[in-house]
Design goal:
The structure holds 2 protein chains of 2 kinds. Chain A is mainly beta. Chain A has strands at about 5, 10-15, 20-25, 30-35, 45-50, 55, 60-65, 70-75, 85-90, 100, 105-110. Chain A is globular, with a radius of gyration of 13 Å. By secondary structure, chain B is mainly β. Chain B has strands at about 5, 10-15, 20-25, 30-35, 45-50, 55, 65, 75-80, 85-95, 100-105, 105-110. Classes of the chains: A mainly beta, B mainly beta. The interface of A and B includes residues 4, 30, 89, 102 and 104 of A.
Chain lengths: ~110, ~110
Amino acid sequence: GQSLEQPSEVTAVEGAIVQINCTYQTSGFYGLSWYQQHDGGAPTFLSYNALDGLEETGRFSSFLSRSDSYGYLLLQELQMKDSASYFCAVRDMDSNYQLIWGAGTKLIIKP
Amino acid sequence: DGGITQSPKYLFRKEGQNVTLSCEQNLNHDAMYWYRQDPGQGLRLIYYSQIVNDFQKGDIAEGYSVSREKKESFPLTVTSAQKNPTAFYLCASSIGREETQYFGPGTRLLVL
């Protein structure tokens, strides 16, 4: 079957660095996406990894290891506005390239 | 400005009633999607369409129906057969099936 696991909640301090992990199990892995969702809002795209390694976009970076079926999102210089839920989503070739979503990680940032 | 619009923001359904949620995009995207999100959960795919006049069922299509008569529009009908419709409904679009999905602001459906 297909499954994704990510922590339900992570707490960090403003200005710090936090890592949100995602492990997945799918038969037709094609790539891993990360989305941010503020309470009551729509998901917004953050990053996408199809190959092993680190992708950097400003304060956010995403890493993928296909051999370990594992990825993470790294947020640096945390700001209060980063308080949100973060979702990993796997693009699955065996599901006609549709996204399969994790349950989300709620990031709580303390001043 | 290009984007995806959904209406209404809130929708109330009475017992036995069908309701239709609107989704419009002016991004010239070929693919469109409907997701359902329950509190504290990830997104689950209801239906998707990769081209006009064609659509496929997602993981939780029962009790829902869609149409794709125009490239810009992908309305979702929640039928009376959907016994637990209370949720946050999100519409998304992408250039193609392998491309990044962009989301509308969502419609929150509540049952009276």
